[in-house]
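User: quick one, fold this
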Amino acid sequence: MNHIRKEKIKEIGIDLLADIFAGFLIAIGVYNLASLAQFPMSGISGVALIFYQLFGLPIGTMTIVLNIPIVLLTWRTLGRTFFLKSVKTMAISSFIMDVIAPLLPMFEGDRMLSALCCGVLTGAGYALIFMRDSSTGGSDFIVLAVRAKRPHLSIGTITFIMDLFIIAAGTALVSQDFESMIYGLIIAFLAATVTDKIMYGSHQGKVALVVTDHAEEICTSIDETFDRGSTILKGIGSYTHKEKGVVMCACNTKQMYGLRRLIKKVDPKSFLVIMDSSDVVGEGFQEE
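Assistant:
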């Protein structure tokens, strides 16, 4: 019982540290880098930034206000635990945005450098929050609700598509400057890319599917050459109705070129499909 309690306390502590660190990254990106340059930002924080630039309303406070209807509509889909963790994250990030970030210096340098740093910092912050099974609410709730319905879509992709509309609105209402819209798109793209890379990039790989009459030979060659395991699946040709072996092998990107040559050497008539894999979990890759 004590062990379970210690693990729970440890998990809560890690969650708090992640929220604080991620909150600083997001606050610096949005308040100290984007607000002065009048970049149109994405997400609910981007909508809150519009209110800040037009009326001077606090970004963090407006983020919470705008989140209320979204939370009411999506909390059942995302679950009670996720909802409570997200409320905690939202409160911490909003406090840092309104209280701590204004105490830090505002960046007044090159706009492109500001946009690049903003995209990287906010993307890293959101990735840390998502990896702790939490969110900053708002568009995060919408993104994760969509992903719950469409799990084949990555978080970064959903976010980028949705953010296009918010960026366009921010440009029209605040800067009315096409160049600012381009900077906003750069920020959104960078943030989405960094989010995906941090969450999945370190474990990206390739998956090869080989339809062949020499499955055993191919598996042996892969094992001897690359020290990679593989799996033989049973398949039936739709035209010939003959049984075929289907070899499935996951490997890193660097090994795939050599693997492809090896397969064609063992069986020149094999049918080979190579796919990207955003996350590979298991022996030889990421361990749970």
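User: anything notable?
Assistant: The CA atoms of residues 52 and 58 lie 6 Å apart.
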